[in-house]
Amino acid sequence: MKAEVVICGAGIAGISAAFFLAREGVREILLVDERPPLTLTSQYSTECYRNAWPQPAMRALMDRSVDWLEKLAGESGNRFRLNRRGYLYVVTQEAARERLLQRAAQLQGAGLRPMRVWKAQSSQEMERSQEGSEATGADLLLGSEVVLSRYPYLNPEAQAALFIRRAGWMSAQQLGMYLLEEARRAGVQVKMGRVNRVEVRKGRVVAVVLSDGSRVQTSRLVNAAGPMLEEVNALVGESFPVFTELHQKVAFHDVHRVVPRQAPLLILDEAQQLPWSEEEAQALQEDAEMRFLTETLPGGAHLRPEGGEASDGVLMLWEYRLQRMPPRWPLPLDPWMPEVILRGLTRLLPGLRVYWGHLPRPQVDGGYYTLTPDHLALIGPGETEGFYLIGALGGYGIMAACGAGELLMYHLLGKPLPDYATAFLPERFARGQWQVPEEDGKL
Ligand SMILES: Cc1cc2nc3c(=O)[nH]c(=O)nc-3n(C[C@H](O)[C@H](O)[C@H](O)COP(=O)(O)OP(=O)(O)OC[C@H]3O[C@@H](n4cnc5c(N)ncnc54)[C@H](O)[C@@H]3O)c2cc1C
Prior knowledge:
- The protein has 443 residues and is of the alpha/beta class.
- It folds into 3 domains: 5-79 and 171-242 and 372-428, 3-Layer(bba) Sandwich (FAD/NAD(P)-binding domain), CATH 3.50.50; 87-165, no CATH class; 251-366, no CATH class.
- The chain contains 10 helices and 20 strands.
- The strands form 4 sheets. The protein has a 9-stranded mixed sheet, sandwiched between helices.
- Strand 19 and strand 20 form a beta hairpin.
- The chain binds flavin-adenine dinucleotide (FAD).
- Flavin-adenine dinucleotide binds next to helix 1, strand 2, strand 3, strand 14 and strand 18.
């Protein structure tokens, strides 16, 4: 067999790379995966997107990616149900209010504009300012009166909120299938199998060998292996500082309709101590493994409605304990997670208290964030000639997929690169040109 380009991994990253290469007229693209397409990490995301990022390069990549999402939504009759409900970061404590203002300033500094500040009750004006799909930037809502005038279902103690406009969610599976179908139509071949070996001669990729023993002659291999990125890097003798973290999400049936169906993604942007009863707190204190649940837990608990008006689905997430670990399946899911997240989100939406101790049919799933120490993806060439990476997309791989796939295509075809390309170059680690991020921006 022969291929112009072999892509290892048919998650959203590999599929997007195939789509953009095929769109540019590259023929003989072989997309190889040991699983059916889109069935590993890409199947279990929260499917959200936003263009608000503290690093200018991330903001630029994401704006570009969202441009594509909007364009493809238009071309496909919005097959993947892209919406623009926005992200709402909420705080209820004075100290957290200061940090929210800093977050707003940082995002503004990275190019998120305009930043509209609302201090008096002005919901009608706010509504008007949000009309039209061009509304971008963010709204900073100061004071509980303003926050509650627009979001009456939130905790009356809400002191401030930051609303990101170019944000929302979609069906990631449908986006992936659309890109895959278009790629196939343009000639991309999909093969089930594992990339077991890569033949490199004189510093160049010459062939890949698959699990069925077949050898595919190629001069270009794209590593889009998601959480197995490093395993595939090792096949060409390369290594990057990549690690994985377990991230879980909980779906439940909001039978009491506590979460409005039209709500944005709601995020509690502050640390908190959970409201346990005396007996619960005592039982947790006595268990060395569980004691941490009585201490201050980090911010970032979030939720959103899932499905249309008729649905009662809600998704909620909160990484209250960081779990860095090598990927393994089945996932080591936390049976306490639904109740813990529920308690945490009750600070945001007091109505959720009705579910304490008996959440209707909670379902937990998830996967691994693949991350680099600066939390920026790896997009571009490796050291070996003909070897490329598109991965380490952390908790933003769905929203970044189109921008990342396009950028990979620019590299592979030797086209002029946009300014933001440098920040994602894999070689930044060998050169020591990277920084620990100020804000993790993983959400
Ligand atoms: C709980 C959770 C919530 C998330 N929420 C969001 C969100 O709201 N928005 C967002 O944008 N992102 C979100 N993400 C992140 C997003 O899901 C990922 O960044 C993205 O799916 C990564 O895609 P990928 O194609 O790189 O990896 P994957 O989807 O994991 O695909 C990698 C593929 O490579 C294949 N593979 C690996 N090794 C080999 C080999 N040797 N041979 C053949 N095939 C191989 C695997 O089988 C797999 O199919 C979330 C993730 C999680 C876990």
